[in-house]
TrEMBL record, chain A:
Gene3D superfamilies in the cross-refs: 3.30.70.330
HAMAP family: eIF3g
Intracellular or extracellular location(s): Cytoplasm
Keywords assigned: Cytoplasm, Initiation factor, Protein biosynthesis, RNA-binding
PROSITE patterns the UniProt entry points to: RRM
UniProt-recorded name of the protein: Eukaryotic translation initiation factor 3 subunit G
Source organism per UniProt: Elaphomyces granulatus
Gene transcribed to yield this protein: TIF35
Coiled-coil annotated spans: none
From TrEMBL, chain B:
Classification via PROSITE patterns: WD_REPEATS_1, WD_REPEATS_2, WD_REPEATS_REGION
Subcellular location: Cytoplasm
Species in which this protein is naturally found: Elaphomyces granulatus
GO biological process: formation of cytoplasmic translation initiation complex
Chief location: cytoplasm
Keyword Membrane: no
Pfam families with a match to the protein in the record: EIF3I
Protein name per Swiss-Prot or TrEMBL: Eukaryotic translation initiation factor 3 subunit I
Self-association state and partner proteins as the record states: Component of the eukaryotic translation initiation factor 3 (eIF-3) complex.
Length: 284, 340
């Protein structure tokens, strides 16, 4: 009753005065401490902390416990308890895992560590000529002037290498360098491309090179429209000068038309230059 | 595990040792300073001052009352562990390379160097512990109770066999000999290591029935105290300075590295400055712990087997507390044994 009578109206409370700390005992044996303080903005904050005290009993050899209390002597005389920074520091964490085949594991780790050396990477690579696949540089090839370089399209050994690569990079295939997901085996085409329904059929797209600097998109469209419906004409231009960069892409609605255009227009003279037309390669 | 680095010495460590309870770690180095540390947190409790030369060796009595040290200033000193006072000095004609208390602490052996016309000797003193309260500790015998002279090859290290019955000594020529601890006669002598490769360390198992020796011939061997039979052999690829037996788990820890004088001409990687762990029974190397910049001169294992400390030529002591994988490691056969 007296409590109620003594309670003052909240409006009469002194705003600068903090209520005394309250300690409540909870059912589970823990205690709740409720205290008040002013925070940095000068606002009154209530802080409730729940603390459970547990007694941890540790058995220590009495002699050891006694030695812990020994006063320091010698150079350390008069120094406070606790490790001093000039004599004691903590080292880097060491992962120590005993293992039977420790030696093999260490060797492997050493090997991967050595991978950084370019010399080691190239150790088992041989020089290969791009013209005749012989063991010499392309520039030194005896057939340099008589044979054209073996192109990727003609099924050069380089192609086979390209096929191997995604396999090596398959998920979980240990050790190999990073291969982006869309290049991994089985990943090709699985990822959705951007562009949605407007995705172009690359099969009906021609790449035109050796285009004059002065070429216009409309002119190219007129040239190729003769073979069929042209969906898109893209002429690469320099960003600053707005001059054509020398190549363009022409997309046809129908692949048959594209094939015909490719055949007819390859070698066509346009603005004093001979066009080269071929099917565009799918960008990867 | 995260090692604690103790930097209390200016020069290379010569010996470190835990007391029997494993709470204190004592260290001596070439810089005349003796340090004692709390093994748990690396706090330095104190230093003992008085030696005038490099301190080669130390040992602490089983009851952690007395500390014995042997040094290059031809002295063996006894110290009050608690206060850091020197309670006794014994003078010798040559440097003292090794001291060790007997298992009951009643006797102390000291190995003296062969030099300047003096032969290497092993001397034994009877030790008194005063009134038991830390008083009257300076009441010690002046004369040794036993003197063994090593005529053939000087002893480099020595220790007590089980119950203080034998004195086991490792020699400069790679042999190990067994002496009667009462009469001082040589009972056995075995060429345990390659001829003329010095034995650098000898450490006993907790019951002292067998011991491990580390030699310059790149091997460590476990010998039986009773008849000096070679029980196990641990080959490594570097001269060994120290070897220790781990209680609780059946491992051994070997430490070594390129000799200090060759260090500047070899890279840290080739230096092999690692503590090597071998399985005591299967003799396989099971792992290494890196850390030191120089050869490991001394390794001490916590008497309870919960950690180890190593002292290197680089002047650092690294105190390691083992963590779970260390205790969990077992061979397949051991695991099967457990299941039964």
């Amino acid at each position: 009753m007296s409590k109620v009578a003594n309670r003052t109206d909240w409006a009469d409370e002194d705003p600068d005065e903090l209520p005394a700390q309250q300690i409540l005992t909870n059912k589970d044996g823990s205690k709740t401490f409720i205290s008040y303080r002013f925070n940095d903005d000068g606002k009154k904050v209530k802080v409730a902390r729940r603390i459970r005290t547990t007694v941890v009993k540790e058995h220590v050899n009495p002699e050891v416990a006694e030695r812990r209390a020994w006063p320091k002597f010698g150079v350390e005389k008069g120094h406070p308890a606790g490790p001093s920074f000039d004599t004691t520091s903590v080292g880097e964490n060491i992962i120590f895992r005993p293992s039977v085949n420790w030696k093999a594991q260490a060797k492997e780790a050493e090997k991967t560590g050595e991978k950084g050396g370019i010399k080691d990477q190239l150790k088992d690579k041989k020089v290969k000529c791009r013209i005749c696949s012989g063991e010499h540089f392309t520039a030194r090839c005896p057939f340099k002037d008589t044979m054209a370089p073996v192109d990727e399209a003609t099924g050069a050994p380089g192609d086979a290498e390209d096929d191997d690569r995604p396999q090596a990079g398959a998920l979980g295939g240990g050790g190999a360098s990073y291969v982006p997901p869309h290049l991994r085996k089985g990943g090709a085409g699985a990822g959705e491309r951007m562009g949605g329904k407007y995705e172009r059929d690359d099969l009906a797209t021609l790449r035109v090179t050796n285009v004059s600097e002065l070429a216009e998109e409309q002119e190219l469209r007129d040239l190729f429209e003769r073979f069929g419906r042209v969906i898109r004409v893209f002429l690469a231009r320099d960003r600053e000068s707005q001059k054509a960069k020398g190549f363009a892409f022409i997309s046809f609605a129908d692949r048959g038309d594209a094939a015909r255009a490719c055949e007819k227009m390859d070698g066509f003279g346009y603005r004093h230059l001979i066009l080269r037309v071929e099917f565009a390669k799918r960008t990867t | 595990m995260r090692p604690i680095l103790l930097k209390g010495h200016e020069r290379s460590l010569n010996q470190i040792k835990y007391n029997r309870d494993g709470d204190l770690l004592f260290s001596v180095a070439k810089d005349k300073v003796l340090c004692v540390w709390f093994a748990a947190n690396g706090e330095r409790l104190g230093t003992y001052q008085g030696h005038q030369g490099a301190v080669w060796t130390l040992d602490v009595s089983p009851n952690t009352v007395l500390l014995a040290t042997g040094s290059a200033d031809n002295e063996v000193r006894l110290w009050n562990v608690k206060t850091g006072e020197c309670v006794k000095v014994w003078d010798f004609p040559t440097a003292v390379k090794r001291v060790e208390f007997s298992p009951d602490g009643s006797r102390l052996l000291a190995v003296t160097e062969k030099r300047m016309g003096y032969l290497g000797t092993i001397v034994v003193f009877d030790i008194c512990y005063g009134d038991g309260e830390g008083g009257d500790l300076n009441d010690q015998n002046d004369e040794p109770s036993l003197r063994i002279t090593c005529e053939e090859s000087k002893a480099t290290v020595a220790g007590w066999g089980y119950l203080g019955q034998y004195i086991i000594a490792g020699h400069e020529d790679g042999s190990v000999s067994q002496y009667d601890a009462k009469e001082g006669e040589q009972l056995e002598n075995v060429q345990a290591h390659e001829f003329d490769y010095q034995i650098n360390d000898i450490q006993f198992s907790s019951d002292r029935t067998y011991f491990i020796t580390a030699s310059k011939d790149k091997t460590a061997k476990i010998l039986s105290t009773r008849n000096l039979a070679i029980l196990k052999s641990f080959p490594s690829d570097t001269p060994l300075n120290t070897a220790a037996l781990t209680p609780k788990k059946d491992y051994v820890i070997l430490g070594g590295g390129q000799a200090a004088m060759d260090v500047t001409t070899t890279s840290a990687r080739q230096g092999k400055f690692e503590a090597r762990f071998y399985h005591r029974i299967f003799e396989d190397e099971i792992g290494r712990v890196k850390g030191h910049f120089g050869p490991l001169n001394t390794i001490a294992v916590h008497p309870a087997g919960t950690g180890y400390a190593s002292g290197g030529e680089d002047g650092y002591i690294r105190v390691h507390h083992f963590d779970k994988p260390y205790f969990d490691f077992m061979y397949e056969v051991e695991r099967e044994q457990m299941r039964r």
